[in-house]
Design brief:
The complex is a heterodimer. Chain A is α+β, with helices and mostly antiparallel strands. Helices cover 28% and strands 34% of the residues of chain A. Chain B is mostly helical. The chains are: A alpha+beta, B mainly alpha.
């Protein structure tokens, strides 16, 4: 079994969605159903939603730049770590993610096992 | 509330659940002292507990595991609030309380741990209150609760409702605990009247809760509930305002709680819906006869004696034999009752420890006009009882006897 990081990009900002409590509630219910199912299959490891605010520190000078630093669609809005046999299965697991209902995208990346 | 939180945190985090409830109550105390009490205080408390629960989850999620089946949902912010909210729905709270009942009444816990744990987690009694109710001190209760939590951990007792073949024996233990809890309130002579009422009320509330869940919706539950209702209907008539005992024959029947008697009748009918006849069925039927008889003299002793015979076949213990003997005495006279009691195995040993056997024999000797033996028994009963009211009743009886030659 391998580990995969699902990076959620774009999608409607969760905090902005709170303005319509009903939609927000419904959206959260979908996330819960999806993650509950992943948990039941033993595929779920962990993950969190991320706030839209952020800061980038870069270069040897450690220059601090305030976000938002990329275009809205590219902002990472959250992540999940899952277990899967291969990329194909990880993609298949991602297909149930509610972010697709909110015009977002999932980037699936395998955790690389570094050789000593 | 502790039950709902335990459902979230897991039984291994029982202490955390209790802390969160305490925090919520503390918050309420502070809030309500400064501001007007909200229109719906219990809803307010529930929301506060919910928020405190989420705080506690965030604080602890990297150090401890929560309930196995939902810990991953509580660990992720995507699902934390939703999962907590779900467990605070009425139906889930009822489910959690039932899980808690089965946990507190688990056969792997010793009998002396079960009642304190039940009173603590399901009834929210303080340590001091439990100690007062069970006639012991705070240290003993603290120790028993500590050992109970330790046993839950070590024996891996699960916070769940048993299913399949496990259910029936586990329900039996629950019935026993609720029955003992009720008796603790109903019969304990030394305990403060208000605490005793609380104990009976708690036993009835938990039994009702059990009956409302599909798992507990069965004849024996209703039989136990019926038994409690019939007994409780006489609660206030058994004592005068000066805390003196009033015997059944002298009680004012019009003061018995009609509403509770009606409920007792309703539940005994529900109990009759199945095939099985449990000890609770028989005891409920006996107390129904007492409660429904128009007067003490018009009590149907023959029917009651028959019920005692059946009870004896199910549960042969000296106390049942003693009660049965008294009933036989109503039919065949006090001498027959005395004979019957004399035949109880190990009577001498029992009579040297428990006041009740002596008190009953003493009364029967009075009725048989044998004042010499009556004096002997009542004196011994007086030396053994721990209840002041009982002692006063016995000395009133002694005074009524003819002086010895």
């Amino acid at each position: 079994m391998k580990e995969f990081l699902l990076l959620f990009r774009g999608g409607n900002d969760m905090s902005a969605m709170r303005e319509s409590p009903e939609n927000y509630q419904q959206h959260l219910v979908k996330w819960k159903a999806w993650m509950e199912a992943l948990g039941k299959q033993g595929k779920f490891i962990g993950g969190q939603p991320l706030s839209g605010e952020g800061t980038v520190i870069s270069g040897s000078e450690k220059v601090v730049t305030d976000g938002p630093y990329v275009e809205g669609k590219e902002i990472v809005g959250g992540y999940l770590l899952v277990r899967a046999h291969d990329l194909k299965e990880a993609v298949q697991l991602s297909s149930g993610c509610p972010i697709f209902d909110a015009d977002g995208a999932v980037e699936v990346r395998e955790v690389q096992q570094l050789q000593a | 509330m502790v039950s709902a939180l335990t459902r979230l945190f897991g039984i291994h985090n029982l202490a955390l659940a209790e802390d969160v409830v305490q925090e919520a109550f503390l918050k309420a105390c502070q809030e309500w002292r400064l501001n007007p009490i909200p229109p719906n205080p219990s809803a307010w408390l529930l929301v506060t507990a919910r928020n405190r629960a989420i705080d506690a989850i965030r604080r602890n999620r990297h150090q401890v595991a929560f309930s196995e089946d939902i810990t991953h949902l509580l660990n992720s912010e995507y699902t934390t609030a939703g999962t907590v909210d779900e467990m605070f729905l009425d139906e889930e709270i009822a489910d959690s309380q039932l899980r808690m009942i089965f946990t507190c009444c688990h056969p792997d816990l010793t009998p002396e741990m079960r009642i304190p744990l039940t009173l603590r987690t399901l009834s929210g009694f303080g340590i001091q209150e439990i100690a007062a109710a069970l006639l012991t001190n705070k240290e003993t209760i603290t120790k028993r609760l500590y050992r109970a939590r330790q046993s839950i951990r070590e024996r891996g007792i699960r916070f769940e409702i048993p299913v399949g073949d496990d259910l029936a024996p586990r329900l039996d233990t629950v019935y026993t605990v609720l029955y003992l809890l009720f008796n603790e309130g109903y019969n304990s002579g030394r305990v403060d009247e208000l605490i005793r009422k609380d104990l009976c009320a708690e036993a009835m509330r938990l039994c009702l809760l059990l009956s409302q869940h599909r798992i507990g919706d069965r004849p024996s539950t209703y039989a136990l509930l019926s038994l409690m209702c019939f007994h409780a209907s006489r609660f206030d008539s058994r004592m005068t305002s000066d805390n003196e005992i009033v015997l059944l024959q002298d009680q004012d029947r019009s003061a018995w709680d009609r509403d509770l008697i009606r409920r007792g009748e309703y539940y005994i009918n529900r109990a009759a819906e199945g095939e099985d006849v449990s000890e609770y069925h028989l005891e409920a039927a006996i107390s129904a006869q007492y409660a429904l008889a128009p007067s003490f003299l018009e009590t149907d002793w023959i029917l009651i004696a028959g019920l005692y015979d059946a009870l004896l076949a199910l549960k042969s213990n000296p106390l049942v034999k003693l009660n049965r003997a008294v009933v036989l005495g109503r039919i065949h006279g006090p001498r027959a009752a005395i004979e019957e009691i004399r035949r109880i195995d190990g009577l001498d040993r029992l009579a040297s420890r428990h006041y009740l056997y002596n008190a009953v024999l003493g009364q029967l000797y009075i009725e048989a006009d044998d004042h010499e033996h009556a004096r002997e028994c009542i004196t011994r009963a007086g030396a053994l009882t721990t209840s002041d009211a009982e002692r006063r009743l016995l000395s009133r009886k002694l005074e009524s006897l003819r002086p010895p030659n």
